[in-house]
Amino acid sequence: MAGRGRGRGRGQMTFNVEAVGIGKGDALPPPTLQPSPLFPALERRAAPLPGGEEGEYMLALKQELRRAMRGLPYFVKPGAPRRDIERYSDKYQLSSPVDSAIDWNPDWRRLPRELKIRVRRLRKGRTASLVPKQHVALDKEETIKKLESLEKKEEEVTSEEEEEKEEEEEGKEEEEEEYDEEEHEEETDYVLSYFDNGESFGPDSDDNGDEAVY
Amino acid sequence: MTQAELRLCSLLLQEHFGEIVEIVGNSLLRTGPRPLRLLVGDTGLLPDQVKKALCVLIQHNLVRYEVQPRGSVEYEARSERILRILRYPRYIYTAKTLYGDPGELLVEELLLHGQLPMSCVVARVADRLTETMEDGKTMDYAEVSSTFVRLADTHFIQRCPTVPENPQSAKAPPPPAPALAIAEKDMYAVPQLSLVGKGKRRHSCSEEEEGEHKAKRQKQEGGRSETPPDDGIYWQVNLERFHQHFRDQALVSAVASRMDQTSSEVVRTMLRMSEVTTASGASHTQPLSSNEIFRSLPAGYNIGKQVLDQYLALLADDPLEFVGKSGDSGGGTYTVKVMWGPGASWAPPSPFPHPSFIPLLLCRFGSRCARIFRLLLRKKHLEQKQVEDFAMIPAKEAKDMLYRMLSENLVSLQEIPKTPDHAPSRTFYLYTVNVMAAARMLLHRCYKSVANLMERRQREMQENKRLLEKSQRVEAILASMQATGAEAAQLHEVEEMITGPERQQLETLKRNVNKIDASENQVDETIFVLESFIESTMKRP
């Protein structure tokens, strides 16, 4: 009993189809087997757009507004992408503000305090440059005091150590004297330890076997 | 928020404020109000970038913040306000028609910047107006200020809520966010400023003036050395008032099309008189006596008092109920019904909400469908047979149209059982139109179509990006060459850099983009009508 009648005729429904208006023998539209097309065919042309002075003026206004908003500081541009290598031309390019400081000055009294971005960049630079100078000054004073105290002691055993210390300390403070004193003795640009002045070269040398003579 | 609205909001934010603001706005819209650290976590952006975006959004009134009892600040996006960005050109154009160029520029500056103090906006507008004037002339601040005052008096611009005046005691720590508030009476109070000055041009005309003005400008530009006299008082555009104005315009044109020009003028006068006295959600204006109306009629319309009374009587008797009679004092008092409701008819040519369905149906389905629809609106419930009879359409066609409208959900079936067991053979099936549902569905469709239009426009621009950049460069070269004085042959040579087919391509692009923009404007008008209708129907108790 159940299931009989299925498929016979057009497909039975729970309600009386005649009431809705589908009479006997009426052809219904075919069942949809796929989603409707992306761009269905237009049966009727659309009404024309509002033209006239008002329409054109609003059109111009709209495009003008769009263009203007791009130039305002409210248009937040993403920061410039970090290059993998620092290039020479970066110095001369007008880069957009990479630090996320705000270009315009909002009234901070009206905004929540947590939104205030602290401009750290400048301050960091300033404080960083101040600190080493102070340290250097402090170092100098300390080392001078140290030297004086060491001189007072004048122990031979520690004299070499003192000299080395002095050299090291002097080397730290004074960036000029980075090289050893050996290198400064002969007043040449070349590091003497690398240079072999050829005294051991030629027939005078006894180690013929090691090197081939051409 | 529906998907269509979300998509449209994010497209609008991206176009006007950039990607970062779009991401932040999107996150807020999708997940609701949240504090800053959750927002940073969700969006995956740097905290500084999120802060910057939030500042921009708050400045433009698109996001509001609230201090929670635990001390954190929660941010919430205002989706309906974001959708208004579509309507900015219409606001600016309305300001232009009402208050001329200064008014137009004032509203434009306020819309572009969100909130501005009066001195700042007056200075900017004066500068811009001076740019467009002839050489040697400058725009005086006084004229711009007077337009500003008029805008404030008619409530088109209003004051933003201000920081509370009372100073915090030393013991209590300052709150994480200020609680901004404003009293109703202060909202349109213009501060007494004496703004003296003239607009400045960007390029020098006379060197002496420039020297002085430059020095002054450097002081005032940063605003750091001296605080302006109206410090802390910011102004914003009152969008609700503009919407009220659009509604009034629609009413007046409806009356004009139903009756005649003079009656529309009468209604317009009545509306103008009650502009500022009508609260934004009221259904009727304040009662106006006919004597007052007579006095306020514009000078051009010299109709007699009796004629006016006749017009008012006609308007009051009209079944559409534009005007209602509320009393007899002063020669009869009348009110205008400003609230639109579903009862208010189906008069075809008027821009009342119902008829937005009808042109839509006309375009999509044909005039006969529109006839059936109008019939159903009038008669509320009809059987299949009755539809055929009343509409005078053959049965087959009527059936076909009804089913199509049914499949689009514009029309629905209502079952009325005859017997308690709801047997299908013994129930009535009536076709009916559920107006609210149909309105919402149409609105959803409108949002979708505007979003599609915007995406298509962006795609068009994207595809022709190379060509657009090239043409911009050529224009820049031409401009610089003309400035330095070049011969016609050289200019011609530079112009030749853009070939013929490329020029055509540019032309086509421009035409398409214009068409798309104009369509966006038009869809926005439909959005306005539908939104007002839905809003007003929801408000009625």
UniProtKB/TrEMBL annotation, chain A:
Residues 157-189, 204-214 have a biased composition (Acidic residues). It holds the Pfam family RNA_pol_3_Rpc31. The keyword Nucleus applies. Residues 141-156 have a biased composition (Basic and acidic residues). It is found in: Nucleus. One of its GO terms (biological process) is transcription by RNA polymerase III. One of its GO terms (cellular component) is RNA polymerase III complex. Residues 141-214 are annotated as: Disordered. Keywords: Nucleus. PANTHER family: DNA-DIRECTED RNA POLYMERASE III, DNA-DIRECTED RNA POLYMERASE III SUBUNIT RPC7-LIKE. Belongs to the eukaryotic RPC7 RNA polymerase subunit family. This is RPC7L polymerase.
TrEMBL record, chain B:
The keyword Nucleus applies. This is DNA-directed RNA polymerase III subunit RPC3. InterPro entries: POLR3C_WHD (IPR055207), RNA_pol_III_RPC82-rel_HTH (IPR013197), RNA_pol_III_Rpc82_C (IPR008806), RPC3 (IPR039748), WH-like_DNA-bd_sf (IPR036388). Component of the RNA polymerase III (Pol III) complex consisting of 17 subunits. Residues 8-65 form the RNA polymerase III subunit RPC82-related helix-turn-helix domain. GO terms for biological process: DNA-templated transcription. It comes from Panurus biarmicus (Bearded tit). Keywords: DNA-directed RNA polymerase, Nucleus, Transcription. Pfam families: HTH_9, RNA_pol_Rpc82, RPC3_helical, WHD_POLR3C. Residues 363-433 form the DNA-directed RNA polymerase III subunit RPC3 winged-helix domain. DNA-dependent RNA polymerase catalyzes the transcription of DNA into RNA using the four ribonucleoside triphosphates as substrates. Specific core component of RNA polymerase III which synthesizes small RNAs, such as 5S rRNA and tRNAs. One of its GO terms (cellular component) is RNA polymerase III complex. Residues 199-232 are annotated as: Disordered. Residues 146-336 form the RNA polymerase III Rpc82 C -terminal domain. It is found in: Nucleus. Gene3D superfamilies: 6.10.140.1450, Winged helix-like DNA-binding domain superfamily/Winged helix DNA-binding domain. Signal peptide: none annotated. Belongs to the eukaryotic RPC3/POLR3C RNA polymerase subunit family. One of its GO terms (molecular function) is single-stranded DNA binding.
